[in-house]
Amino acid sequence: MMKPKLYYILKHRDRELADGQLMKDIVAGIIVAIIALPLSVALAISSGVTPEKGLITAIIAGFCISLLGGSRVQIGGPTGAFVVIIYGIIQKYGLDGLIIASFMAGAILIVFGILKFGSLIKYIPYPITVGFTAGIAVTLLSTQVKDFLGLTINKVPSEFLPKWAAYIKNIGTINWVTVLIGILSLLIIVFWPKVNKKVPGSLIALIVATLIVYFAKLPVATIGSQFGNLSSSIPMPHIPHVDLSTVGELIKPAITIAFLASIESLLSAVVADGMIGKKHNSNMELVAQGVANIASALFGGIPATGAIARTAANVKNGGRTPIAGIVHAITLFLIMVIFMPLAKYIPLTTLGAILIVVSYNMSEWRVFKAMIKGPKSDVIILLFTFFLTVIFDLVLAIEIGMVIAMLLFMRRMAGTIEVNKLEEDDCCEIFNELEGIDTSKIGNEVIIYDIEGALFFGAVDTFMDMMRQVDSSAEVLILRMKHVSVVDATAYNVLKKVEEKCRRENIKLVISGIQPGPLKVLKNMGMTTRIGRERFTKNFREAVVLANSISVKKENII
Fold it and tell me: How many other C-beta atoms can be found within 10 angstroms of the C-beta atom of residue 153?
């Protein structure tokens, strides 16, 4: 049913919130908010918007996702997957264009949920998911080079190859003080968990680096030097005015945002299910993601989705209900109101270091490396998706990846079809069914073909090649279709040609043991009427008995 998880939990509050779970959720929410704080600011800046936009997104979208979502522990907010998409939209259409695209994406997500598309996530091949995730990680990493190295570049191109060309061209402008602060930040982030796993290393790196830069008066770019004073309040809801032509141009980016948000949020929910031993409602989750993106856009935020790392942190710190996510949003709001003016002192290189670590974790390079050693078809899909994501476009990567995956799948399925001619002297287990029945005519008057696999358009050539070898002197042709799981329109057309060949050559066609699905196809398309329902036998034994009786009748007629 399309009801938020929070509804069920509040309805059964005595059981769900027993044994101090409410307090555990509150603590988990506060900890996740501390983790989300530097990430939200860093992701906003990398996306080409001001830092407070990231916090607004985490607050508004995070609240909506937890309030309305289909997962117990999902934490929503800005994620690295959207950085490149948002940056491209901002460069071409500005902030108003991003708001409209987010609105449209939210509406699309709601429609996805209402139409129950949540289960379709399982049809996306794993190599595509790994490929575009790794591609996004590399692209996100490439956006941090300028700030991490302190390069002086007026405008960084949004495309991957031109971006790196600009970095190489301006490599002589490296600020070594900036680099040292960035390396220090990286080291703190990486090694701090050995000291304390509760407090995130990214927050410690942010505090330490900010204090060093501020008190030592180091020549390092900060949020304040780039953006000036920051707002500590959430703006009033606003819908920008755009013309219809711009809306038309924004349809593709909106679909990209919706598609990526649905994939990432449902993957996050699946991961969370495995951690807590519960099951999420994928369709309700999509509706919540849609509402969250519309609400975020209303308040000037950026696109949001379920964040795997923050969701996992929530679970590890004891969160088990959506209350943790709501507390996370409220905590971020309080931090924004109280501490936002101090954010202007944060070094950009530290935010770059934070996102470099995010990129590394997001890449799942060990999984990527392992998959390179897998089947060739999966490697092709993986590499195509990865390189297309990095060099061109995420949507193009997924589209081409899906097409390649489908073609390779059909090729594999076509290779699994087996059509074997059965002879009387074959040592075959199939003939165990014929004990006590005359089998002397098998191979001469009675020709038998055993078919196994999916009989679809990609596999019919193999079947037709065997059918061309049917001896015209035969009296009965038995097609044993017990192990045929699928018959499509192309396969039906081939079966019809076989039936017409049998009719011309006065051969009686008998079909044995056909499954209900394929039988329904043949019945609906008229084959049972043409050859007679009695020629469709329940099992192989009945088919041979029928074939023998047909052969005897022919002999008597002669």
Answer: 14
Q: Where are the beta strands (DSSP E) in 200-312?
A: 305-306
Listed in sequence order, the residues at least 6 apart from 102 whose beta carbon sits closer than 8 Å to its beta carbon are: 254, 257, 293, 294, 296, 297, 301, 302, 303
- Tell me the per-residue pLDDT of 46-75, one tens digit each, with 9 for 90 and over: 898 999 999 999 999 999 999 999 999 999
Residue 475, number of CB atoms within 10 A of its CB: 20
| Residue carrying structure tokens 């309700």 | 284
Q: How far is CA 533 from CA 377, 496, 526, 529, in A?
A: 42, 15, 11, 7
Please tell me the distance from the alpha carbon of residue 419 to that of residue 466, in angstroms, as a whole number: 7
Neighbours of 323 (CB within 10 A): 24
- SS3 per-residue string spanning 178-211: HHHHHHHHHHHHHHHHHCCCCCCHHHHHHHHHHH
**Strands 476-487 and 446-455: what pairing?**
parallel
- Tens digits of per-residue pLDDT, 424-449? 555 566 666 677 777 778 878 888 88
* 4-to-9, 15, 78, 150 alpha-carbon distances in Å: 9, 17, 21, 46
pTM passes above 0.90: no
> Which tokens belong to 323?
């209350």
Distance CA 143, CA 108 (A): 28
Place of tokens 């037709």: 464
Is residue 487 within 8 Å of 522, Cβ to Cβ? Answer: yes
Task: Return the SS3 of 447.
Answer: strand
Residue listed under structure tokens 């264009």: 97
Q: Determine the distance from the C-alpha atom of residue 243 to the mean position of all C-alpha atoms in its chain, rounded to a whole number.
A: 32
Is 364 strand, coil or helix?
coil
